From TrEMBL, chain A:
Database matches in InterPro entries: Bact_Polyamine_Transport, MetI-like, MetI-like_sf
Lipid bilayer topology: Multi-pass membrane protein
Chain ranges of the ABC transmembrane type-1 domain: 55-255
Organism: Roseicella aquatilis
Name of the protein: ABC transporter permease subunit
Amino acid sequence: MRRLGLAFGLLFLWLPILLLVGYAFSADRIPFQWGGFSLRWFAALAANARLLEAAWLSLRIAAGAATLAVLLGGMAGWVLARFGPFRGRAVFGALAGAPLVLPEVVTGLSLLLLFVVLQGAAEAALGWAPERGALTVLLAHATLGLAYVAVVVQARLAGMDPALEEAAADLGAGPFTAFRTVTLPLIAPALAAGWLLAFTLSLDDVVVASFVSGPAGTTLPMLVFSRLRVGLTPEINALAAVILALAGVAVGGAAWALLRRADRDRADRDRADRDRRDPARSSRRG
Amino acid sequence: MMRRAAILLPPLLWLLLLVAAPVAILAGIALSEAAPGVPPFIPPISPEGGWQGTFANLLTLVQDDTYAAAFLRSLVVAFVTAVLCLVLAYPMALGIAAAREGWRVPLLALVLLPVWTGFLPRLGAWIGLLRDGGWVNGVLLALGFTEGPVPLLYTDAALYLGMVHAYLPFAVLPLAATLLRRDLSVEEAAADLGASPWVVFRTVTLPLSLPGAAAAFLLVFIPAAGEFVIPELLGPPEALLVGRALWAEFFQNRDWPLAAALAVALLALLILPIRLFQRMEEDGGSRRGASPPSRGSGRSPEGPKP
């Protein structure tokens, strides 16, 4: 019964995706119609300059936004996990968590209004203001990513033993050395996961980008959305298959790295346990 | 002290500028008057003109039945989506929790991976599956259930299929986490005392999983209430939801103050569920922080750390 429910749910989640990928290799002009195996839609994709341009723009925005998000979100996560109670902590936490719970249309509209006001101020002060476009999308996506990174880093720090850093300090490490040699390696998986999360979030966002972007900043999701409004074409079908393959490789790779790391951690813990039970052996080895 | 400030200030300033200020501006513009120009509104307060604001936009939302209907419909769609997700997610989470230890992480990954494959490609798949000459209609025809194509795309059914498909992983995650953390010995004790499997489930497992179910519900309900893309691509064209109304006022009618008023009203409606969700997260977070799961419990019987 439980297995049946799980199998049904997984089938529901995966069937449309697998069919989409399968039919991307169909020669037929109508999507989801089998007309023999063909790579023609992938070739058409590779020849579509507008689409490639949008994809390249989206990748650059996503990489920049994710990097900013890791820097700022890492600091925010640190503040929330390690600063203890301080005045304004509740406000800080609410602000850092807000992008997670605000509806997309609200985030998009409010950020656009901010950019318009800033542009107006720049116009009045300097007589010139930068146009909205890639930069404003990047700033918006960095803000969304910040919130996700902060949660991941905070959770990782909360599950970490502060005694490790204290031990480093006791052994004479300065605060920076302790951070670099002890804390940073321990939170590195959280930072990597946060970067990946922010990166894919940015690559996937159509609502916020549509609000804050300008005429020169059409991202890939914005382009795909405008095409899908008219209906699915085999080219978009092929594009979806490519995105799926890339996401599969990225997430599969990350999962593999995490599992390997978990294995190594478990082996380390087991060894530490054995040593504790049998100190003679560990002292022999040391 | 300096070091603390150096860590606190960059994210704090960023959040003040890009989270707090936009929401404040949004509220301000909701109180302003629409006017032709760039940007298309008169600021509610200015050094020259003083107070020029108006409550007309917020009043419009209350007085115009179209918007009241849009809000009601959005809440219904979000509620139904969240309930459907819970119904599907519960057996899935139970199945993951009951799986052998080595299988749990891969199964969870299988549930979450569709999220990472992108939102638009999945909607594209539904468009291809549900349209008149699409795959689902082909299957129905081949099985002899229908004579001609059944209109599926741009209906409420398509809307809910797309919504549940998009949000289901977010419902499975908190449920599975809660069920994995539960103490199995309580259920064993109930069974030992003669309770049937169904009674064990109803009196022990279900109540224990309620916090996870509440988190799952809110995690779907909150974003679903403002959803724009799925109704736009799959739903009936005439169905006005808040997300679509806001989008139309902004992009088609260029009525920024009314769009801002819609956003403020949506926030006001969602503030209660949002606060509830954050409270639950804080509670769960501190409990998790106080006793890290699985790690300590396996080792503590061996005595204190050296």
